[in-house]
Structure formats: structure tokens, C-alpha cells
Amino acid sequence: KPITSMTAARDGRGYWFVASDGGVFAFGSVEFFGSRGGNKNRLSTAGMAVTNTNDGYWLVWDDGTSFPFGDAPDFRSSVAKRTVVAIEVVP
Questions:
Q1: Within 13 Å and on the Cβ side, how many CA atoms surround 33?
Q2: For residues 91 and 89, what is the distance between their CA atoms, to the nearest angstrom?
Q3: Hey, CA dihedral for 89, 35, 73, 61, is it positive or negative?
Q4: For the segment 38-90, what is each residue's pLDDT rounded down to a tens digit?
Q5: What is the model's pTM?
Q6: Taking CA atoms, which of 20, 54, 79, 83 is between 20 and 30 Å from 44?
Q7: Distance of alpha carbon 16 from alpha carbon 22, whole angstroms
Q8: CA 38, CA 72: separation in Å to the nearest integer?
Q9: Are strands 3-8 and 14-19 parallel, antiparallel or unpaired?
């Protein structure tokens, strides 16, 4: 599937690519904590946000549904009224 976003590690030593179906690809010093690759629904991955520790991340779909991996807490996503295009972490 096509890559829809790229997120750098907070320490600048690695990065993740995210595919439209939720597949995650880790490069450099970052770890792979899981993915939703192979997702067969009509939704597309809108983006990824990394935890402050670099030990986890959230994936968000264009309908606002999010999935935590690694040390990312589950904030119980809700469906958005408009198409989601990105996700950001506030320190």
C-alpha cells in the first residue's frame, strides 16, 4: 500500500513510515511496536504521533479512530464529524 505519512523519532535517530492500510515500517534506531497493516476497510491512515519516550505511537484513521501501540495510552477514540488529516501530541 502507498505510504501516507512519515514521523521522525524525537531524538532524530530514526523514523517510521505509515502506509494507507495502517502498516508501519521502522528505520534507524526506532522500534516497531505493531501496526494495523492489512486493514481491509474503506478507511485510510491519516497519520501517526510518537510518545515522548519514543517507545510507542498512535495511528489515526481518517474517521478519527485511533490505535495505541507500545507505551502509548489508549484515549478511547471517537468518530470525527469531519475527515481527520493528522494527529499531534501536546507535551
A1: 21
A2: 6
A3: positive
A4: 877 778 888 999 999 999 999 998 888 889 999 999 987 777 778 888 788 87
A5: 0.86
A6: 54
A7: 12
A8: 21
A9: antiparallel
